[in-house]
Write a structure and sequence with these properties.
The chain is an alpha/beta fold. It folds into two domains: 123 residues, 3-Layer(aba) Sandwich (Rossmann fold), CATH 3.40.50; 169 residues, Rossmann fold (3-Layer(aba) Sandwich). The chain contains 13 helices and eleven strands. Strands 8-7-6-9-10-11 form a six-stranded parallel beta sheet, sandwiched between helices. The protein is globular and about 50 Å long. The two termini are 32 Å apart. The protein binds nicotinamide-adenine-dinucleotide (NAD). The site of nicotinamide-adenine-dinucleotide (NAD) has 28 residues, from helix 5 and helix 6.
């Protein structure tokens, strides 16, 4: 475990067990050099506890990089709660989680992520103030979706030289809080949609509301579309899927899309333009961080809209240097964090 922390660059890993509520939670704090760590709380089932730890470590690092590239005064952290298999009291479980967050004295601020909702954040807020996405702040997903939509437009402009999404065919995986809103925005602009979700009801809703074609979850990777938009879970660009892609672009909200960093290079070799996840999906983090510091809506929206310019610059740099976009984005984020570290130690 320490080796994983070291190779990931994670500062701290905290575990919390509360037999009374069934809470088993992990908080990974990747970095606090640029400010308190901020990042969502994931609440899903894990077949093995080790996978939950790995998820927390990988996601926390992504949050540090995301905050650094978005210029936010935060480090990255992430919480994972292993969803209990048996009956549990949801409000009590999230209140217990709040007590855990509170022990960290503000080094970690929690927020929504896959499997959690605004009402859970309200329960957490009963036992700690280090929480955002509460009822008074709201769900970050629409801002994440807006950033992804702008990122898709930037990718299409760069790769196809097209300024409109009308007629562009997009395969979309995962139709939850973010994916459904991305589908709505894409449908409005005339994009053609092929969608998949393990929850068939979500897929059928997109078929009904956005004239989307529904396919089986395993078939989404091989769809002959222009762009693949992953909005489900991570590691979906892996050894099994990478040869199936027929798209020329991948741009979506899911965190940790590349199972391994070298998959980014394989995408580049195949001529598939990839929008690094922690850059394109930063809209939600921008929303929660700026809401937390009471910034106006206009400032939040304007910062989210800047995601497309940041992606355009990255695509250009990658095309000029021949270095894969994920490597350039990682390096930029690491440089920003190192610079803050040097400034802190000099102060
Ligand atoms: P969500 O839980 O609301 O939705 C995820 C959807 O993906 C669900 O409908 C689920 O059924 C589906 N799904 C899961 N596995 C799938 C599979 N193998 N095939 C097809 N569908 C599958 O989550 P969300 O908030 O919409 O977030 C989606 C992704 O975006 C996650 O990776 C999350 O970490 C990331 N993200 C979300 C935000 C945000 O603001 N919500 C911000 C940044 C990144």
């Amino acid at each position: 475990m320490f080796q994983q922390m070291e190779s990931n660059g994670t500062q701290r890993l905290h575990f919390f067990s509360d037999p009374e509520t069934g809470l088993k939670a992990i908080i990974a704090i990747h970095s606090t050099v640029r400010g308190p760590a901020i990042g969502g709380c994931r609440f899903i089932s894990y077949q093995q506890e080790d996978n939950a730890v790995i998820d927390a470590l990988r996601l926390a690092r992504g949050m540090s990089y995301k905050a650094a590239l978005a210029g936010l005064p935060h480090g990255g952290g992430k919480a994972v709660i292993i969803k209990p298999e048996n009956h549990f009291n949801r409000p009590a479980l999230f209140q217990a989680f709040g007590r855990f967050v509170n022990t960290l004295n503000g080094d970690y601020i929690t927020a929504m992520d896959s499997g959690t909702q605004v009402s859970d954040m309200d329960q957490i807020n009963k036992t700690t103030n280090w929480v955002t996405c509460t009822n008074s702040i709201g769900d970050p997903s629409p801002m994440t979706a807006l950033g992804v939509f702008e990122g898709i437009k930037a990718a299409v402009r760069f790769k196809l030289g097209r300024h409109s999404l009308n007629g562009i065919h997009i395969s979309l995986q995962g139709l939850g809080h973010v994916g459904y809103e991305v589908a709505r925005l894409l449908h409005q602009t005339g994009a053609k949609l092929t969608v998949a979700d393990i929850n068939q009801e979500r897929a059928l809703l997109c078929e009904k509301n956005f004239s989307a074609q529904v396919v089986e979850p395993d078939d989404i990777y091989a769809i002959d579309a222009d762009l693949f938009c992953p909005c489900g879970l991570g590691a979906i660009i892996n050894d099994q899927t990478i040869d199936q892609f027929k798209v020329s672009m991948i741009a979506g909200s899911a965190n940790n899309q590349l199972a391994e960093e070298h998959h980014g290079e394989i995408l580049a070799q195949k001529g598939i333009l990839y929008a690094p996840d922690f850059l394109i999906n930063a809209g939600g983090l921008i929303f929660v961080a700026l809401q937390y510091s009471a910034q106006p809506q206009a400032a939040i929206r304007s910062k989210v809209m800047q995601i497309s310019d940041a992606l355009k610059n990255l695509f250009q740099e990658s095309s000029m240097t021949g270095i894969a976009v994920n490597r350039i984005a990682n390096k930029k984020a690491e440089e920003i964090i190192s610079a803050a570290e040097s400034m802190n130690s000099a102060a």
